[in-house]
Amino acid sequence: MIKTEATGRTVDDAVANALKELNLTKDCVKVTVLHEGGLFSKAKVLVEKLPSDDEKVKDFLENVLEKMGFGNFVVESEENEDRIAVNIIGAGKGNVIGYHGETLDALQYLASLVVNSKEGYRRVVVDSEGYRAKREESLTKLAKSLEQKVRRSGKAFKLEPMNPYERRIIHTALQDSKYVSTESEGTANGRHVIVSPKLVGDILNAPVNRKSLNFVYRSDKKKRR
Prior knowledge:
The chain is an alpha+beta fold.
């Protein structure tokens, strides 16, 4: 932790001297008055730099991962005005990600609680070695494939339940489609996306009476039985 002790004619002078030494502003530090000073003595303070939001998130995740039994991991973090991005390296990659990122999502939710309050909000993204980018690419390809299937068949396809992040990827990938529309249905953990044809005239070889067809997307690790 970055800290220093400083003296001055008054407490304010001592704090100012400490801030100058640390090259920080008062809103970034915690001040402890060690001696208020007097007629024949100077004031003395201890000034400690407060952890930034990304440092809070990093420390929190390191503590949680240790308690979960993970070892030999590194937590990297960076922040800007709008977002804190965290990357977990090592820690048994598959385990820290979980099925379709469920463990990452849980860690991300908890980390968000650490830095957000009623006074403001900052988005926290927790990733592990590029998993989210790979998952986004996979879901985008799935969405484009479904677009063509719906266009040719004229039938609506229902995907398996997904979290809000994954549903948003599907919606975004098809938001400008001329042939299909998307909507989310269901509640809680059963909420899923339905991809439907827009107009019969837009569908190749579309039948007049359209029927819904359930399409369940499974990862390579979860095969049909």
